[in-house]
Amino acid sequence: MTPKERLRKKIFSGGRISPGEADSLFSWDLIELGEAADMRRRLVHPVNTVGFILDRIINFTNICEAACDFCAFHSGAALKPYELPLPEIFSKIEELRARGGTQVMLQGGLHPRHTLATYTGMVREIKKRFPSIRLHSFSPSELDHIAKKSSLSLDRVIAELKDAGLDSVPGAADMLVDRIRAKVSRKKIRTKQWIEIMRALHRHGMKSSATMTYGMGETQKERVAHLAVVRKVQDETGIFRAFIPWSFSPKRTRLESMAPATGIDYLKIVAVSRIFLDNIRYIQAGWLTEGLKLAQIALAMGANDMGGVLTEEKVVEAAGGGTKAGMREFIDLIKNAGKIPVLRDSDYKVLDSRPARRLK
User: Fold this and answer.
1) Which of 64, 128, 297, 306 has CB 3.0 to 4.6 Å from 74, enough for a Cys bridge?
2) How far apart are CA 148 and CA 189, in angstroms?
């Protein structure tokens, strides 16, 4: 039996693969890899459903002292600095609620003047007016920044944000390889700090997600190393509801000369992620950055969630990217992929198994 045959047998029997074996999967034929990934999807998600959520990203400021090379949204790039007043944030949430939306993602940056009181005040006021809206907001780097600006421990920051009404935190991970982080996001946390923040969130009973932004000059082995960090943290904490890979958009950033990743790159990463991350049930298809057609193909290669029908998104848009889609497009896309669309909540629980009834 060849090494590839042994690996195939391990995959189809549900065995855990090593980082080295994951690295070798990138050389597999795309269709063969997709079939293996879809089989692994069925082991953890045997039903043929694909979920999505009605949510809204509110980028409440673009003032950020991190000034990452891969970001076109911060005020040091081509955009003017701004901060949304609370009434405007409330108005955006009210629009979401009127459409039946259930989740808000507040995203800002490493603001030089914001302290813990800024964030807890914002969260508390939102929850006072919209108690049923789930706040899946901020990021590990923001939590670290808040702790430093407020001269408080990370645990104190998380406890106070949770008490104010924060429900969960997106695990914005960029690339969990310090060689890359030192090159493109010098002022943000390193991998060890990201892991510690995930552990701290777990201590406080909060859930997160894990992402991977690839195409910033990392090697294939470094992509696998990122996945290995995610799997290890999940083994330890069980904190991640989902894993979301997406490609870096170089347009309008300081890395604009870099060639963008290809669709084949994306599909292979989705498939390898599904096989390697055997402890994470949901892999999202990155329609916002990759486009609807590629996301649809990803549903046959291990992905089983479409993420959010976003009412608003500014960061990807600032880099000249971003796909527009509504509930109708999601439902049609999922059905045409041979799957069953379901509307879910922040905990991935099904709210409506027949979401087409909501269309007007």
Assistant:
1) 64
2) 12
Q: Is residue 233 part of a domain?
A: yes
Neighbours of 102 (CB within 10 A): 20
Residue 62, number of CB atoms within 10 A of its CB: 24
Residue 45 sits at φ, ψ, to 5 deg, of -140, 75
pLDDT digits (tens, 9 = 90+) for 257-306: 666 789 999 999 999 999 999 999 999 998 988 999 999 999 999 999 99
Supply angle C-alpha 114, 119, 120, rounded to 5: 135
The verdict on pTM exceeding 0.85 is: yes
CATH of the domain at 14: 3.20.20.70
What value does the mean pLDDT take over residues 208-232? 96
Quote the tokens at residue 189.
């946390």
In a domain, 94, yes or no: yes
Domain count along the chain: 1
Any domain includes 199:
yes
- In sequence order, what are the residues at sequence separation of 6 or more whose Cβ sits closer than 8 angstroms to the Cβ of residue 354? none
Residue 224: its H or E element: helix 220-237
Residue 346 falls inside a structural domain: no
Instruction: Please give the distance of CA 121 from its chain centroid, rounded to a whole number.
Output: 25
In the numeric block, the tokens 């390889």 are attached to 177
